[in-house]
Amino acid sequence: MKKALFVILMLAVFFSFVSADSAAKKNELLYPRTKKVDVIDDYHGTKVADPYRWLEDDNAPEVKAWVEEQNQVTFGYLNGIACRGPIARRLEELFNYPRYSAPFRVGAYYFFSKNDGLQNQSVIYYQQGLDGEPQVFIDPNTLSADGTVRIGLMGESQDDRYMAIARSEAGSDWQEIRVWEIASRRELPDRLRWVKFSGAAWSGDGFYYSRYDEPKAGDELKAKNENQKVYYHKLGEPQEKDTLVFADPRHPLRYYGAGVSEDKRFLFLYISEGTHGSEIHFRDLTKKDDPFHLLCPGFEFDYSPIDNIGTRFLVHTNCDAPNYRVVAIDAARPGKENWETVIAEKGEVLLGANSAGGKLFCNYLKDVTTRVSQHDLSGKLEREIVLPGLGSAGGFGGKKEDRTLFYTFTSFNYPPVIFQYDIASGESRLFRKSEAKFTPEDYEVRQVFYASKDGTRVPMFIVHKKGLKLDGGNPAYLYAYGGFNASMSPYFSAGNLVFLENGGVYAVANIRGGGEYGEAWHRAGMLEKKQNVFDDFIAAAEYLLAEKYTRSDKLAISGASNGGLLVGAVMAQRPDLFRVALPAVGVMDMLRYHKFTVGWGWSVEYGSSDDAAQFKYLYAYSPLHNLKPGVSYPATLVTTADHDDRVVPAHSFKFIAALQEMHRGGNPVLIRIETRSGHGSSNLRKAIEISADTWGFVFKNLGMECK
């Protein structure tokens, strides 16, 4: 043990060594010196060096020493920011208000979550009826000393007696399924491990779920997840006795999931080769040993069963409808030629459709804001639901016997509010109003449209204080995602207020790759067309400059995950355009991302370096491989976490090592590595801390003062 400690200390000294004289001459920070190794890969005849390959082994003592040294430099810098303390205190004030989820009914009970303000995790409550006294069902804050255990409700049993619970720790995607008896609030002994990206589909005295084989010790957070299988678990039995329902070893890189229809008759098998494109099979549970039957073939389009009327399935799909539609499929004649259109495709994208109370509720997106309509099960329009304004609404789900539903509405200057909706009358009634310490009237929200490099018209939201002067002197923060069919519709963020209060301009660009305008918009920003995403983001920045919202030395850019890839790519392509870059948990090594955890599932979005043609365009924009020596890059704060097993921290480690090697100039280029946290902050305390550090970094490097 003493020898190992000595080695770690010596490695730390080695990594911290750098020429102080040369750094002082350039007015640069003293970054840890990161060793380089002689690793070269041959990609279809192209030799690519990977000198920081050793940083992929997060368990190695030398990597742990490197992480510690990087954090010492980063926090040394952050601790010197005068605004950091006041920002942290203001963030605590802004987050310190009660926050609720919309309730949903399980038998005689209604479930909802509530955070009193600064609790690390929201507490799950339940009550009998809408007028009952709320009682704590599960308080995750009591389950760990550091508040990093998360709890999610996975679904109730068909007799409404039990609730399946997903429990995760330290931000990891790995979950353990447990079961609670609702009335008694008694936890059963059932423990189902190595679960990831799964539901709990109840049937009889148990449920279907998906799991992986137990990974090798030490590789839990980085090893490739393969051969997901569907099992049936009977309550009270140990996991070892669970029945294998479906496995396909011929296709180890697919997702397999299960669902059960509300009438308990059908078991659905969902299969996907990645983050989009699916295949659906079904089995009639009323027939003994009924095999699975193909309902919707894969994997070009997306299919999502909504409900069934006997053997007639209602399915939400983009098959032959890039903006989506709802079709009815007869189980006896599932061929596409026999489909009936229930809700036809429109000019606006149909984001989703739910059934509740014997009705269909359709959620449309019109220029990135929500529209909701109510239909009967034949598709006939009954009413357009009046929302409080232009923003985002979610909810409208329930069971066939429900007569009352709930939905949440929010926008950039509209904290989330919960409404109760009467299905028969169409009346919405305020159920819970937000108590956020915020005056919406002080701020203005605009939606603008700008032209990208190829002339495509792209929308962008801009938020700022009223009375803003367009003189080019305002600090601005540009955010986007641009991938995986995800739509960046309006949302309220208490954390952003600290920037807006101090005269900042907050902008969200709805760039291609997302789902704002349907599957065509998505496909225009994926695979070989990914450069469109970067061009759209660069054009958004250029619009803010041209319209004098800001100027380059006052502009920060931000994105997380796929958005972190976005920031890494555009700062490599246009380092002159931005003053600050904030790539969070980003996919930075586009040649090796598919070799870790579930990265292979993104190949349908990005392509894979295993393919010669796809390698060429991946190599052309991969952030890690497009940094150039001698370039002055923006002030950069890379953020990641040790338990991120979705986008493993090796991406950020290798990127910052290359950036610190290549960068020339006085702008700081740093990495902040959180502990016991994952792809998102594992508790509220960590979320506030990283937000304070990030805003502090932005304030200092944009020349902002705390008011």
Structure description:
The protein is an alpha+beta fold. Among the domains are: 69-92 and 438-701, Rossmann fold, CATH 3.40.50.1820; 100-260, Prolyl oligopeptidase, N-terminal domain (Methylamine Dehydrogenase, Chain H). Helices cover 19% and strands 33% of the residues. It has twelve helices and 40 strands. The strands form nine sheets. Strands 33-34-36-35-37-38-39-40 form an eight-stranded mixed sheet, with helices on both faces. Helix 4 crosses helix 12. The chain is globular and about 70 Å long. It starts with a helix and ends in a 6-residue tail after the last helix. Mean pLDDT is 95; it is low at 1-27.
Largest sheet entry: 8 strands, mixed
Can you tell me the CATH topology of the domain at 69-92 and 438-701? Rossmann fold
Q: How much strand content do the residues show?
A: 25-35%
- Strand pairing plus helix content: what structural class? alpha+beta
What is the number of helical segments per DSSP (H or I, 4+ residues)?
12
Distance between the termini: 51 Å
Mean pLDDT: 95
Q: What's the CATH class label of the domain at 69-92 and 438-701?
A: Alpha Beta
